């Protein structure tokens, strides 16, 4: 046994659990450090390597749950109830648990270091494709500050980046456990990381060296802080309307061709909706702008049910389509939309739009890629705890699909984002200003491998996992 391993053997396993809790907290969601993610699972994996038995696994499960509870608690601020912590932390614990426990059971297998990243990648894909928790807690989201490594999203999406993060974590464990460096625990994972960094740097530099067509866009913020009951009275609501319309006029007068309001910019009663839409059509026609006007229509108050929607209006004053939020946040009283995704051709480019949490799901962003959108507007409403993280997460979709984003955010950071995921203009609703953000946004699409192959990397992980299971089975039956 080497001196290094003798030192590790003297470390109390429970200390490894405490360190693991800290590294998960330090690497995920708000107030995090990207670099920690590349070793955040190492303490937990070392604990599983050193301990055995049911009691050990129960302690580990509890530690993982505590880690995710404390990590999630970082984003819970007013007006979100504290109970939301457990609504996310418990499912995230259960989603992550199989990768750890299956690896721990078969860690002596020749290719065990592939088990951990393959299972993690598959479980995360299931989460952000089919589950209401979207991409929160996903490994790739730990890199939201690191624009260079994020360029790898254009190749294999979040699954590819997440796989590499988990592969490096398990490789570090393998190296610590006194094994010699090999192709699979050193050369390949760290070589791929270096390749991704070089690729990202070159991709950004080549993009900046190109001449790009742009268009003037603007976000318009609301004065409304209403998120549910009680609704604003008629006089107050009228002030909100006037402010939105006046700001839209200012945005158009300063040259904006596309204007997007915040999510839930105003509440409109059902009986008033037709007149409201007529006024919006006249506004867009008069100003000759493409308008994404987001508002909420109460359907019932007991229980509270809402239509969280927008109308997409072209510069001729015609409603091209209406859209209800497709993926309401768990606990949100919005009626789930199911209409097909659409774009409108106006002012010389193709405009798509979705609402806030919708863009935490890569499959929704991919739908607009297939529709050849040049710019996608995302009326949004956040809260202090997830600001500005949620806007940086939206930038992932721009890199994956190669189009620009215009995220107009209430209670958070509004931003114009180019196809490289770079924020080229931003405005925080918590600052004091006129609630109008302007930007010149690229309208040219950028081809990406991910937009062509979609979830191909995930399917490869399924094949890899199947091969590993078959290999383990054959070994055990010999």
The portion of residues assigned to helices is 40-55%
Mean pLDDT: 95
Write down the domain tally: 2
Could you tell me the radius of gyration in angstroms? 24 Å
Fold-level CATH name of the largest domain: Nitrilase/N-carbamoyl-D-aminoacid amidohydrolase
Please give the alpha-carbon distance between the first and last residues.
Answer: 30 Å
Q: What is the SS-derived class?
A: alpha/beta
Order of helices and strands: HHHHHHHHHEHEHEEEEEHEHEEEEHH
Please indicate the percent range of residues in DSSP E strands (runs of 2 or more). Answer: 15-25%
Outline the biggest β-sheet.
6 strands, mixed
Assign the CATH class of the largest domain. Alpha Beta
How many helices? The count is 15
Global shape: globular
Overall number of strands: 12
* Strand line-up of the largest beta sheet: 5-4-3-2-1-12
Regions with little confidence, pLDDT below 50 for 5+ residues: none
CATH architecture of the largest domain: 4-Layer Sandwich
Question: Can you offer a commentary on this structure?
Answer:
- This protein is an alpha/beta fold and about 475 residues long.
- It folds into 2 domains: about 5-210 and about 455-475; about 215-445, Carbon-nitrogen hydrolase (Nitrilase/N-carbamoyl-D-aminoacid amidohydrolase).
- About 50% of the residues lie in helices and about 15% in strands.
- The chain has helices spanning about 5-10, 15-25, 40-50, 55-75, 85-105, 110-130, 145-150, 155-175, 185-210, 235-255, 275-285, 360-370, 390-400, 450-455, 455-475; strands at about 215-220, 260, 290-300, 305-315, 320-325, 345, 350-355, 375-380, 405-410, 415, 425-430, 435-440.
- The chain has a 6-stranded mixed β-sheet. It has a 6-stranded mixed β-sheet with strand order 6-7-8-9-10-11, covered by helices on one side.
- Strand 4 and strand 5 (about 320-325) form a beta hairpin.
- Helix 6 (about 110-130) crosses helix 15 and helix 8 (about 155-175) packs antiparallel against helix 9.
- The longest helix is centred in the middle third of the chain and has 26 residues, at about 185-210.
- It is globular, with a radius of gyration of 24 Å.
- The protein starts with a helix and ends with a helix.
- The mean pLDDT is about 95.
């Amino acid at each position: 046994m080497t001196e290094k391993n003798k030192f590790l053997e003297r470390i109390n396993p429970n200390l490894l659990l405490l360190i693991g809790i800290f590294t998960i907290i330090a690497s995920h969601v708000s107030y995090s450090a990207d670099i920690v993610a590349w070793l955040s699972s190492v303490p937990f994996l070392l604990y599983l390597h050193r301990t055995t038995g049911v009691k050990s696994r129960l302690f580990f499960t509890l530690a993982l749950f505590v880690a995710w509870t404390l990590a999630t608690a970082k984003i819970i601020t007013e007006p979100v109830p504290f109970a939301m912590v457990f609504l996310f932390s418990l499912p995230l614990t259960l989603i992550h648990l199989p990768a750890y426990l299956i690896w721990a059971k078969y860690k002596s297998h020749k290719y065990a270091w592939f088990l951990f990243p393959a299972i993690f990648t598959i479980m995360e894909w299931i989460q952000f494709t089919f589950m209401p928790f979207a991409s929160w807690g996903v490994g790739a989201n730990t890199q939201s500050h690191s624009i260079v490594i994020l360029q790898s999203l254009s190749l294999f999406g979040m699954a590819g980046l997440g796989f590499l993060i988990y592969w490096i974590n398990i490789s570090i464990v393998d190296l610590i456990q006194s094994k010699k460096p090999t192709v699979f625990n050193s050369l390949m994972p760290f070589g791929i990381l270096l390749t991704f960094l070089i690729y990202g740097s070159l991709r950004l530099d080549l993009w900046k060296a190109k001449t790009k067509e742009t268009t003037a866009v603007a976000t318009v913020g609301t004065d409304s802080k209403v998120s549910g009951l009680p609704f604003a009275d008629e006089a107050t609501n009228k002030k909100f309307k006037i402010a939105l319309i006046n700001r839209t006029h200012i945005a158009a007068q300063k040259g904006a061709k596309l204007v997007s309001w915040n999510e839930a910019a105003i509440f409109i009663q059902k009986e008033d909706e037709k007149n409201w839409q007529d006024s919006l059509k006249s506004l867009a026609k008069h100003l000759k702008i493409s308008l994404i006007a987001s508002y909420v229509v109460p359907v019932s108050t007991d229980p509270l049910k809402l239509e969280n929607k927008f109308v997409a209006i072209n510069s001729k004053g015609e409603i091209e389509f209406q859209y209800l939020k497709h993926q309401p946040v768990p606990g949100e009283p919005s009626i789930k939309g199911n209409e097909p995704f659409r774009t409108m051709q106006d002012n010389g480019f193709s405009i798509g739009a979705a609402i806030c949490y919708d863009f935490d799901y890569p499959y929704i962003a991919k739908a607009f890629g297939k529709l050849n959108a040049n710019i996608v507007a995302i009326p949004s409403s956040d809260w202090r705890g997830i600001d500005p993280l949620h806007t940086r997460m939206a930038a992932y979709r721009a890199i994956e699909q190669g189009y620009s984003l215009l995220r107009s955010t209430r209670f958070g950071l509004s931003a114009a984002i180019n196809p490289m995921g770079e924020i080229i203009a931003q405005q925080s609703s918590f600052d004091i200003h006129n609630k109008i953000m302007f930007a010149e946004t690229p309208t040219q699409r950028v081809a990406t491998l991910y937009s062509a192959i979609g979830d191909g990397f995930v399917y490869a992980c399924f094949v890899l996992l199947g091969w590993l299971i078959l290999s383990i089975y054959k070994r055990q039956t010999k």
